[in-house]
Amino acid sequence: MDHVLSNASINVEDKHSHEVITALIQLYSTKVMHLEKLFNFNDFYNTLIGGVCDEAGFSMKPTVFFIGAYSTGKTTFIKNLLGKSYPEMNISPEPSSDKFNVIINGDDDIVLSGAVATGLPGSPFNTLSDFGLDFVNKMVTTTVRSSILTKINLIDSPGILSGVKQSINRGYDFCAVVRWFAHRSDLILL
Questions:
Q1: What's the whole-model pTM score?
Q2: What is the H or E stretch that residue 2 is in?
């Protein structure tokens, strides 16, 4: 199964790519990290300290994060972008999915539970397990054969609910999870 999640990352088997990523990690660790700590940068922005400063984080494909109210077309947009339906896709006028769905390229349509996606060594999603079992049970990784997914990863988020429902019914810190995905995404579509 770990080969499935390696599709979420750029192929680092290329010796040159591996050397560049290693150099970036070393540069960050020796030249930037101590300045972030000294100036308390972490107080107002979640930096690479804490999980992304590793080979899996640096080698992750560009990621597009879809977020918005429920029933606004996030999943429909992804379906049209891919040109087909995919497992775990549920389109409805009512709130239809309460899961974060990480959509990556794969040879077959496979759905991996959040426990698998966050538990595999070297997975770019390892630190998501810090949000607890309630969140991990609300996450899936879906592999889909698609030419667009050879270049990018997509994240389909559950719809934002209004008022008290947003914080009480989730069972995990929704805002913190959204922040985690947003900080690691290259484009956010709202």
A1: 0.74
A2: helix 2-5
